[in-house]
Design a protein that fits this description.
Chain lengths: 564, 469
């Protein structure tokens, strides 16, 4: 172990005497930093692993060791300063190759770029947060036009990456002005009213910008709970007439000029939309709570003012913070957890509202996220999303291709799991934040959003996907390129797991299980389940088969599927 | 080159989708409460009888612009339509003529892409329910709407809310419990001694089929699938099976973990029972188009064909056909998508004809809402009262049920941009289906709590009159 210095060797010997049946590793935090000083930053390997399950799309053993050594805050600071793993450059590279070679099947390029960054870019936290944001500020390739413009989807994802540690207000504005969102929620080319021909501004974006992206349907208390009136009913934040007014604001946006990259295209899917004042509704617009935007102040000013208006709404903090907590940590956060985080949204400590970097830090370091007692809490935690489980297994075990490209179109996983990044069936994402399943979850008055896509078919498909990856060695869905004699501009190779450390200890099933327990279930797997796996493994001699069997059973176990 | 791994596991297992289990079906495993055992509901007085019945609910998610599906063809109604719809209006001569029985003299036509549905209608196998939508209570006119003199549905014009309300028929609440789920809760003891849910979904978890006690059984158009190797005969498969069974037998303190274990156990058991039943009958011969919608209906037809082996006297199927939110490009999108509906419904009806049970299966469409009669320059936006299709079930075919509204703008039902107040509620639409299905009049309000505001069960007449109740 990396932090095994002379000074804490003795400590470890002592611990070993006490904790023969313990999970393993130096279980307590606060171990010596080698200078004889208590370093409050270091954490146990188990806690490090657990933290990384919230903060990344899957971490390998080395990353766990790093967090154990430099602590969570240290790791967060390091992560905040990593260069950003943008998607667009690789997509553009592929598009250029495609155009030069008359290659038409381009819609998968944005998938390849996503995998490239997620598998190789060191900005692990940012990639995780961007994915969470993509489930809130949803766009999807289910709209054909967007599927056919991978440069658009990559560019859109890049604004989520860019703003992940920026300011929420900037994120909201960038999303509003992005042409992919303009197409997805149809406010691109939205024109002012023409009553003579019975044409009125499209209301789609006006609605979703409030319902899903900023304030939600009901007035909220600072702790994210729904405010009620004197009769106990929720209070709506807006009604249809408000939407009609906001729809006037989002008029006049048109595509930026096509630019050099794709001169023949009708729509520039990369650069922010621009304002055509001729199409913009010039009259006064009434926002919420009677605030009015004066007539004739110009389209971009109207949009920025409307964004500010929603950004400053008291709902914005609790609304977004609760959603982010649900994406990363737990489905049913205590109201005071939400309130603590929303407070940071309101003021990051330096008088700034909307600081997402501070919010992410607050979410991940809050005692409710990191309290060692939480694992014992029956109601704490969330289901790992099917898509995140798929990505995680590849990252936990350093799946690598010989050439460094990950040309994964993801079709198999998408078909099996009914989930894929930027492929939501609607702007409401794959699951609703308040989904309350029948059975014991609902009986306990808990929500479990991700359970909404865990159906009787996907719950069986997931183990089969793991089977195909772990036993049949098919990790990525690679394109066939049959009509090109199997060639592409880049080498097409599947990824291979690195099980070398696991194979090395496969002769000791208990040790193998403990290692997998650390990586996958942060040392929390029950003795009962561990024994089941050890028993299964003991049927075989071959080290690889032992590792495969153990890993498969881990991945399908309820204790792995639930992140707590 | 992809590297292949040598191992003990047969690759054919994956391709077969069920490993060696297909061949080696042992005795059926113990079923758990998800499959309806252990949930005692009070004895239903429902009229189940000996006859088999099924419903197929199709959700056109996004809001089908159904005033471009069923269109006034005669004058002056067509002119009113054309004036309101502007650049969205279909050509009068392009509309497919409908031979309407018991009409009020108005002529109607169908979108030009729906020749098969035209035939079904003219042959008496299909009808329309018109200007139907979500209502908490009747709303007489735009003034009652504007002054809020009457209660209005929650989240009117919001997809998520309206789709939910078309599945719960409860526009005043967000319960997540659907009327087919409630029917299943009510009828589960009467509809056969089989342990598979009456509610079978081709589209995953859905509110429609979620009850208080029961949920849906999910399959895909490719069929049901089990875990590779599970219950298989060779050594590895036995080890795997034992590990999985032991794993699911553990008690989990964390509620989410226990819920997951429960669901996996139930799903494995149900799948085995289901697959055995399907495999022991022949597939229907009727050809189906190769698209998601038709493939789903084909699988439903084959499942219906296996109803005796499944031991189910009642089945409710759910198919979600998405992509109807045509804010943009309404005309081209409908041109692509309405024919898919038309063909699928016709192919399904042919399969039922092949099985000789057209009168036993009622297929109906639902959708979040219709769309604004007025154009936004490219398409239409969210509206309210809509038109839906019903096929089969011994329906009174060739008829336009409900009150097809005046389409001239600013008529008393127009609350703006040709958004029309429904004149028939989803309660009435579903009540008729539920009564046909076997729910008694006295039980109707437990399935549809608001029905009393629209229909008097003691009146002796049907809620709408499209089925023989």
């Amino acid at each position: 172990m990396k932090y095994l210095t002379k000074n804490n060797c003795l400590l470890i010997l002592l611990l070993a005497l006490f904790t023969i049946s313990s999970i393993g590793g130096c279980g307590s935090s606060g171990s010596d930093n080698g200078n004889g000083q208590d370093n409050p930053e270091t954490v146990s390997m188990e806690e490090a692993s657990r933290f990384l399950s919230m903060a990344t799309l899957g971490a390998d053993y080395e990353e766990i060791e790093k967090v154990a050594e430099i602590g969570k805050e240290g790791w967060l600071e390091e992560q905040f300063n990593q260069p950003i793993g943008y998607n667009l450059p690789f997509t553009l590279e592929l598009l250029e190759l495609a155009f030069r070679n008359n290659f038409e099947e381009i819609h998968t390029f944005r998938r390849y770029s996503w995998w490239q960054q997620v598998m190789t870019s060191p900005d692990l936290l940012r990639q995780r947060v961007a994915f969470a944001l993509s489930e809130i500020f949803v766009v999807s390739d289910r709209v054909d036009m967007l599927a056919n413009h991978p440069e658009g989807l990559s560019s859109y994802y890049d604004i989520l990456l860019k703003n992940a540690f920026g300011n929420f207000r900037d994120l909201f504005l960038d999303v509003t002005l992005h042409p992919v969102m303009g197409v997805y929620l149809s406010h691109i080319n939205n024109k002012k009213a023409n009553p003579e021909i019975n044409r009125f501004p499209d209301e789609n974006y006006a609605r979703e910008a409030m319902q899903l992206f900023s304030i939600g349907l009901d007035e909220l208390n600072p702790d994210g709970t729904v405010m009620t009136d004197s009769k106990g009913f929720p209070i709506a934040t807006y009604d249809n007439s408000n939407i009609t007014e906001f729809a006037k604001v989002y008029t006049g946006l048109v595509s930026a000029p096509a630019g050099d990259l794709f001169p023949e295209r009708r729509i520039n899917f990369i650069d922010p939309m621009v304002m055509n004042e001729e199409f913009h509704e010039t009259g006064e617009k009434t926002l919420l709570n009677g605030q009015a935007l004066p007539a004739g102040q110009g389209g971009m000013k109207d949009i920025e003012d409307a964004i500010d208006h929603l950004f400053n709404h008291p709902n914005a903090g609790p609304f977004i913070c609760k959603k982010l907590i649900q994406r990363l940590v737990t489905s049913n956060p205590e109201p005071d957890y939400v309130q603590r985080v929303a407070k940071v949204f309101a003021d990051n400590g330096s008088g700034v509202r909307g600081d997402l970097r501070a919010v992410i830090k607050a979410i991940l370091l809050d005692k409710d996220a990191s309290d060692p007692a939480q694992p014992g809490n029956q109601k704490f935690g969330k289901f790992h999303e099917p898509w995140v489980r798929y990505v995680s297994i590849l990252r936990h075990f350093n799946a690598a291709t010989p050439d460094g490209y990950y040309l994964n179109n993801g079709y198999l996983a998408q078909f099996f799991l009914n989930q894929h990044v930027l492929s939501s069936p609607s702007v409401f994402n794959f699951f609703l934040p308040n989904f309350k399943p029948n059975g014991i979850i609902g009986e306990n008055n808990l929500v479990a959003p991700e359970f909404q896509i865990i159906t009787s078919s996907t719950i069986i498909n997931h183990p089969n996907l793991i089977f195909i990856m772990v036993f049949l060695g098919e990790l990525l869905s690679l394109p066939d390129f049959e009509d090109r004699d199997g060639t592409f501009f880049l080498p097409v190779n599947d990824a291979v797991f690195d099980f070398s450390d696991e194979i090395a200890i496969a002769d000791d099933p208990a040790a193998l299980v403990d290692r997998l327990d650390l990586i996958l279930t942060y040392g929390q797997m029950s003795d009962g389940m561990k024994q089941i796996i050890i028993d299964a493994v003991n049927n075989f001699e071959d080290p690889l088969l032992r590792v495969q069997t153990a890993l498969y059973l881990f991945m399908i176990s309820p204790e792995y599927v639930v992140q707590n | 080159m992809r590297k292949k791994k040598k191992n003990d596991i047969s690759r054919r297992a994956f391709i077969k989708g069920c490993g060696a289990t297909c061949a080696a079906m042992g005795s059926l495993p113990f079923f758990s409460s998800f499959l309806n055992l252990g949930m005692i509901s009070s004895a239903s007085a429902a009229n189940i009888g000996q006859e088999y019945k099924a419903m197929v609910c199709i959700l056109l998610a996004g809001g089908n612009d159904s005033f471009n599906m069923l269109v006034p063809k005669g004058n002056p109604e067509y002119q009113e339509y054309q004036s309101a719809r502007g650049d969205l209006a279909l050509g009068q001569n392009d509309l497919l003529s409908l031979d309407v029985l018991d009409g009020d003299g108005r002529e109607f036509g169908l979108h030009p892409g729906m020749t098969e549905l035209q035939q079904l209608f003219n042959n008496g196998a299909a009808s329309f329910i018109t200007n139907v939508g979500t209502l908490i209570e009747p709303v007489a006119n735009a003034q009652e709407f504007e002054t809020r003199a009457k209660l209005l549905p929650l989240g009117l014009f919001s997809h998520a809310d309206q789709i939910e309300q078309w599945q719960t028929s409860l526009p005043d609440k967000r319960t997540g419990i659907g009327w087919a789920g409630k029917m299943n809760d009510l009828l589960q003891d009467l509809i056969g001694n089989n342990n598979i849910s009456m509610n079978i979904s081709l589209s995953g978890t859905n509110i429609f089929q979620t009850g208080n006690q029961t949920t849906e059984f999910s399959v895909s158009s490719q069929g049901s699938t089990s875990i590779i190797g599970y219950k298989g005969g060779d050594t590895y498969e036995q080890i795997l099976t034992q590990s999985i069974d032991s794993m699911l037998n553990l008690e989990y303190k964390n509620i989410f973990e226990q819920a997951y274990a429960n669901k996996l156990r139930n799903s494995l058991d149900a799948e085995i029972a289901f697959r055995e039943a399907i495999m022991s009958v022949q597939s229907v011969n009727t050809p189906f188009s190769n698209n998601m919608f038709s493939n789903s209906l084909k699988f439903i037809a084959n499942t219906i064909n296996a109803r005796e082996n499944l031991g189910q006297k009642r089945q409710v199927f759910f198919v979600l056909f998405g992509g109807w939110d045509h804010h943009d490009d309404t005309l081209p999108r409908q041109q692509e998508m309405l024919p898919v509906i038309s063909k699928g419904l016709s192919e399904f009806y042919n399969a039922l004809t092949e099985m000789g049970i057209t009168d036993n299966v009622a297929t109906f469409t639902t959708s979040d809402f219709a769309r604004t009669l007025t154009s936004n320059g490219k398409g239409s936006d969210h509206a309210w009262g809509s038109n839906q299709i019903v096929v089969g079930g011994g329906i009174k075919g060739s008829r336009i049920f409900g009150n097809y509204p005046v389409l001239a703008l600013n008529n008393p039902l127009d609350v703006g941009r040709g958004v029309l107040i429904p004149t028939t509620s989803t309660d009435e639409f579903f009540a008729e289906l539920a009564l046909w299905f076997g729910v008694t009049g006295s039980e109707l309000s437990s399935i549809l709590p608001n029905i009393g505001r629209f229909y008097d069960i003691n009146s002796g007449s049907a809620p709408i009159g499209f089925l023989n109740i």
